[in-house]
Design goal:
The structure is a homodimer.
Chain A lengths: L5 H11 L6 H13 L2 H17 L1 E2 L6 E2 L13 E8 L2 H10 L4 E5 L17 H9 L5 E4 L5 H13 L6 E4 L15 H9 L7
Parallel strand pairs in A: 3-4, 3-5, 5-6
Antiparallel strand pairs in A: 1-2
Helix pairs in contact in A: 1-2
């Protein structure tokens, strides 16, 4: 389009490749940066260029890290007998923010999805079994999402860990904190009733 | 946070400086790029770094351009007797996409906003008057938004152009195309009734 200078057009095209960013948002972001001092676009450019260079996967839990082992696996204050299994490094970050978990992690890097050709071999499941085989782990907390593929992955892990000398647990499902039950969906409400907890526990 | 490698943290922080991008979206974008081949982040970095270097303001209409005059001002097929006044270069891009306008543009680079200290001198209004003074313009189409500051800016321009030898027009306001009038807001509906058009015109 005649109205858009090529350098601007190129940035808009590149922004659009990011997930959840359509043409309108891409245009808005690019025009915003163009109106701001050049240093702001340059800073973002430098952060992007430096991203992959310094980050690798922790060889123990497979999260993104600049060190190996990562800061969590290398922290002696963490409880290494408890391992939380998550889908993605982003899930680890969300759980860390709660401050409610002091064990270690294991990142699967995906969920089982036969339709997309993602079976157990595409995930870090063999590595999880190897960690358990080496011993020293009492409990494996399955913290995959409560989506259909997340539940299927948890069920699969539950099954193959059946014989392992560890306790296998799952994140509790139920009404979100602070939610009026009028607004809870029926599946969540049914699950909350089935897994109801004794007061004071 | 221990869980986030510094290079990732830095990119998340930089993404958050963009308008409409909160911490969750910034984290999602950064993790997405980290999972993708390094070349994708690098391409985006290069587009960002190149952005300001090649783009300047057209000295005639003040849009962003790699040439001066810009491609539109320099196009002899455009009708230079008709000038469309818009708030931002992004508005020009939206109007160009419609293909319904074949005149030239004038970018104000903002709207009047006394609360934010933006008066006529902060916008390219003096330059607009100078273009009109030089002659050759028959019509000025005020295409600022139909927001309160956009309307105020249009009213101000209408007033100072009152004596100028040009016809001053405004974008029509009314029911959006394809909208059921049940869903139109009452101000728009009232305006559409007031400015009703004779069928077949």
């Amino acid at each position: 389009m005649q109205a858009v200078p090529p350098a601007l057009e190129r940035l808009i095209t590149d922004f659009q490749k990011l997930p959840g960013i359509g043409q309108k948002t891409a245009t808005r972001l690019a025009l915003y940066l163009l109106r701001r001092p050049a240093a702001e676009a340059r800073t973002l450019a430098e952060s992007l260029a430096a991203l992959h260079g310094s980050i690798q996967l922790c060889s123990r839990c497979f999260t993104f890290s600049e060190t190996d082992p990562c800061a969590i696996c290398g922290d002696p204050r963490r409880n290494e007998r408890l391992v939380c299994v998550v889908e993605e490094p982003g899930d680890l970050m969300v759980i860390e923010k709660t401050g409610a978990f002091r064990g270690l992690y294991h990142i699967l890097h995906g969920v089982l999805s036969p339709m997309d050709g993602i079976g157990p071999d595409e995930l870090k499941i063999r590595e999880l079994l190897e960690r358990i085989r080496q011993g020293g782990i009492d409990e494996v907390l399955l913290a995959t999402s409560s989506t259909v593929p997340g539940e299927a992955t948890a069920s699969y892990l539950m099954e193959i860990l059946h014989q392992a000398p560890v306790r296998v647990t799952r994140l509790a499902c139920g009404i979100p904190m602070g939610m009026d039950i009028k607004y809870a969906d029926e599946h969540t409400l049914a699950r909350a009733i089935e897994t109801r907890q004794r007061m004071g526990e």
